[in-house]
Amino acid sequence: MTQSEVLDLFRASGALLEGHFRLTSGLHSPKYLQSALVLQHPEHATAIGEALAARARHLQPTAVLSPALGGIVVGQEVARAIGARALFAERQEGKLTLRRGFTLGPADRVLICEDVITTGGSTLETAAVAQAAGANVLGAAGIVDRGSDPGRLGLPLYTLVQMEVPSYQPDACPLCASGIPVVKPGSRA
Ligand SMILES: [Zn+2]
């Protein structure tokens, strides 16, 4: 699956909007990305999972670990395609943790999987959960890499789409300056 094929799926599902948006952070952006809207279609989720699995399969992971909630669906599909377990870490009192009886150990080769990787902070936090359990973290996979430097995680990174999404403080937003009305994504759905 090429980057433009993935982006076509995103656009067709309303998962990638282009215009002038007020994000939940309060920042403004010309793009809005909501991967849950493409993953709500199981056939798209499977196709995306298979495409990511094709990039990361050579690592021979025994487990795919995703941060809840955003990474769960794609992690499940990647694990299905690879033939690995699919686990997720979730926040308990602010800290990512393995719950629900999920275990990882020194015999596990772990691929971290997310939907969208921005700074990579949550990816590394998820990797730390696996490492604390004694597992070997092999790399990270994500549908979209929003950063400009794939080396920033210090882990091999496998993604389908590389797309920097600029965001602006409202008082420094060039879209506001050109008089384009700002939209809160989801408010017109
Ligand atoms: Zn603006």
How would you describe what is shown here?
By secondary structure, the chain is of the alpha/beta class. It is 30% helix and 29% strand. The chain contains six helices and eight strands, in the order αββααβαβββαββα. The protein has helices spanning 3-12, 36-39, 42-56, 72-82, 121-132, 174-177; strands spanning 16-22, 28-33, 63-67, 85-92, 95-98, 109-117, 136-145, 157-162. A hairpin with a 5-residue loop joins strand 1 and strand 2 (28-33). Helix 3 (42-56) packs across helix 4 (72-82). The two termini are 28 Å apart. The protein binds zinc ion. Residues 20, 28, 170, 173, 175-176, 182 line the site of zinc ion. The site of zinc ion has 7 residues, from helix 6.
Unreliably modeled segments:
none
Which sequence of strands runs across the widest sheet?
Answer: 5-4-3-6-7-8
**Spatial shape:** globular
How would you sum up the major sheet? 6 strands, mixed
Assembly state: single chain
The helicity comes to 25-40%
**What share of residues are in beta strands?**
25-35%
The string of secondary-structure elements, in order, is HEEHHEHEEEHEEH
**Structural class estimated from helices and strands:** alpha/beta
Spatial gap, N to C terminus: 28 Å
Mean pLDDT: 95
Contiguous helical run count? 6
Tally of strands:
8
- Provide the gyration radius in Å: 17 Å
Bound molecules: zinc ion
Question: Tags for this entry?
Answer:
30% helix; binds zinc ion; 189 residues; two-stranded antiparallel sheet
Walk me through the topology.
Elements: H1 3-12, E1 16-22, E2 28-33, H2 36-39, H3 42-56, E3 63-67, H4 72-82, E4 85-92, E5 95-98, E6 109-117, H5 121-132, E7 136-145, E8 157-162, H6 174-177
Parallel strand pairs: 3-4, 3-6, 6-7, 7-8
Antiparallel strand pairs: 1-2, 4-5
Helix pairs in contact: 3-4
The structure holds zinc ion (ZN).
Zinc ion binds next to α6.
